[in-house]
């Protein structure tokens, strides 16, 4: 992670983040108006991966309350460096079971729950940390039935069983569902269709689990489609922080 920036650099970066945030806020607001939804029904989560803790602190100062990370190695020290900021930390990346203990130390919500073994690992970690972790089932619309997709996520027909596993697990709370627009399969290039399917899955999930209201969908490129399709949480990175080097 880069060293703390100087005062002038920090002021310039803060102004840049404020301008980007304002643009994203405007996009969410317009999408809500167009969809006949209330602005407060959509929560912005800023994805801070690859950007330093100093940016996270600036965002907190600009009123951001929800941030997300996708790699534990990067997230753990960043969350520690921002422990005094009033932030909710979301974990949105593929998660190995041996990282569950670390993630349970700082993440309030894990959006990428996609297999029973991970539920077991997170549950053990949450109990040990004496914390409750909110879980979202990540749905992959390009995964084969009964398997986990390449970028994480369970096939739609696996959601019910996994939701039951989360509900039965100590230390975990079932909060909802999440998806990333698929790059392959029949819904590739059709984010809105994927997000609508996610909402249908959410609707049937809520019949059995009424508290599982979160629908996490939409990123910088497709947040309008997500809002239109009923997302309650959008995960926006590059539109707020700037283009990342194309590593991930
Ligand atoms: C990086 C990431 C985002 C944000 O993507 P942008 O295109 O930068 O907005 C959202 N969700 C997940 C799971 C991510 O890994």
Describe this structure in words.
The chain is an alpha/beta fold. The chain has one domain (7-240): TIM Barrel (Alpha-Beta Barrel). Helix content is 42%, strand content 16%. It has 9 helices and 8 strands. It has helices at residues 7-35, 53-61, 72-81, 100-104, 116-129, 159-168, 191-208, 223-228, 238-241; strands at residues 43-47, 66-69, 88-91, 109-113, 133-139, 172-179, 214-216, 233-236. The chain has an 8-stranded parallel beta sheet. Helix 1 crosses helix 2 (53-61). The mean pLDDT is 95. It binds pyridoxal-5'-phosphate (PLP). Residues 47, 49, 70, 92-93, 180, 219-221, 235-239 line the site of pyridoxal-5'-phosphate. InterPro entries: Ala_racemase_N, PLP-binding_barrel, PyrdxlP_homeostasis. Pfam families: Ala_racemase_N (PF01168). The modification N6-(pyridoxal phosphate)lysine is found at residue 49. Belongs to the pyridoxal phosphate-binding protein YggS/PROSC family. It comes from Streptomyces albus.
The CATH class is Alpha Beta
Class computed from helices, strands and strand pairing: alpha/beta
* Helicity range: 40-55%
What's the helix count? Answer: 9
What is the 3D form?
globular
CATH architecture: Alpha-Beta Barrel
Attached small molecules: pyridoxal-5'-phosphate
The counted number of beta strands is 8
Rounded to an integer in angstroms, the radius of gyration calculated over CA atoms is 17 Å
Strand content: 15-25%
Distance between the termini: 17 Å
User: Residue ranges: pLDDT <50 for 5 or more in a row?
Assistant: none
